[in-house]
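Posting this for the archive.
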Amino acid sequence: MNNFVFVALLAIFVYIMLTKSSFEIESGIFIYQKPSTVYKAISSMDIIERFQPYVVSTKKIGSEKSADGIITEFHTIEEHVPTVFNFTLPVIFDTKMEFTKPDSILNFHYSVWYGTVVGHVTWGVEPRSGHRGPGAYLSYHARISSPWVTKSFTEASAKEAQNTILTRMRIAMEKL
């Protein structure tokens, strides 16, 4: 009987630790640049590799075009995410970029560790005017699911990376 209780409690503990927990991140930034230039930049994996603080490499696997004309590209992304005591955790992302609405909306889906962490990101680009003239507002919305036990780490890493990438992108794109 004691073994059964132990196994049952262990199963409940593992279930709780691995239950999916989701969070969302919304942010955006104004960039003094044409919306088409901003969209072109976020549509390129080069921008991810240049501005995402943890990315080490990207590799295009293939692409396809759906019956309704949406182009989808498949990539792998390798990141080295910092953890405690200056250690880094190598992570491989399987990604899918959907060019849903050219010059306006880009959907980006990814999974890590065989689907234990899953993210759905929507980048939006819209024309706006700023104090110094016309530009583009780049919006970012992400919904990320990860096991409960890793939620705090995943959320902190994602938020830090997102703030960094938006700032770096604005600085680089305004120099174009």
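The helical segments are 2-18, 35-42, 45-51, 151-174. DSSP finds four helices and seven strands in the chain.
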